């Protein structure tokens, strides 16, 4: 096995182990219970175990946070802390992580990730990307689906409380669309706007939008 492949395998194994440990042993992580630790330090020493260095996650289970809108991250971290956001991944991973975060640490985390440079996405299926782009920019009038760009911006970079979606993992986007469509687990804040949108998207349309967004810079 060459060194590059070995490094990748070991890195993936360490990432999986780290996230598993965070899930089961959050109480043993001293920094999470210390309000004097800065958000910058938490991001680099704790959050990076799942969300990757600089917020550029390589595991589609965990969203990429680099370049994310700070207002959105602040809202989500507070929703995890209060348990208002209760999707499966939320309570499995983020409830324990967020429970001891102070407002100051949350603000610092949001600003840290805002300042990180996102890794550009890659197109894997040109046909899906083209269809997804049309939906993202124009919506689906026949189904009552508005243009995603009307809230998330023409490039998918988001603004204010609307999240950046460009270069996000397609699997993660699909998972969240399913949560919005089939549950009330994210029915809080601006998330309430997504339920009817996701409900009116077909499975194929959701995959097309996810493919387009994951291909963006």
UniProtKB/TrEMBL annotation:
GO CC terms for this protein?
periplasmic space
**Alphabetized GO MF terms:** electron transfer activity; heme binding; iron ion binding
Q: Does the keyword Electron transport apply?
A: yes
A Pfam family name for this chain? Answer: Cytochrom_C
Instruction: Give the Cytochrome c domain ranges.
Output: 33-117, 127-217
Q: Which Gene3D superfamilies match?
A: Cytochrome c-like domain
SUPFAM superfamilies xrefs: Cytochrome c (SSF46626)
Cell location: Periplasm
Please tell me where this protein is predominantly located. Answer: periplasm
Q: Name the InterPro entries on file.
A: Cyt_c-like_dom, Cyt_c-like_dom_sf, Cytochrome_c4-like, Cytochrome_c_Oxidase_Subunit
Keyword terms: Electron transport, Heme, Iron, Metal-binding, Periplasm, Transport
Name the UniProt record assigns to this protein? Putative cytochrome c4
